[in-house]
Specification:
- The protein starts with a helix and ends with a helix.
- It is mainly alpha-helical and 90 residues long.
């Protein structure tokens, strides 16, 4: 859904040293968004605008807070972003 280059552009990273880290964060973001949003693969892809926003938020949060990430805070933020998807409103 989100390419490595798109994530790097969003993060404003222009060097290749963090490519592996960002790729791993993209996978983590997808899994976390699916879990918090209570979505399967099909539901995840059907609401692309919201899930892309949630994934980019997650990747940026985890990238910027590599050593001090507050996963409770992150989960609450993702619940807010994914609320409609999570509750089956959309």
């Amino acid at each position: 859904m989100i390419s490595l280059q798109e994530a790097k552009n969003y993060l404003r990273v222009d060097h290749p040293e963090d490519d592996k880290l960002i790729s791993d964060l993209l996978m983590t973001a997808k899994k976390l968004c699916m879990d918090v949003g209570r979505m399967n693969e099909e539901q995840f892809e059907s609401n692309e605008d919201t899930t892309r926003t949630a994934m980019l938020f997650t990747v940026s949060y985890l990238y910027e807070n590599r050593n001090t990430a507050d996963f409770h805070k992150l989960t609450l933020s993702l619940r807010s972003i994914l609320f409609a998807q999570r509750e089956g409103v959309i």
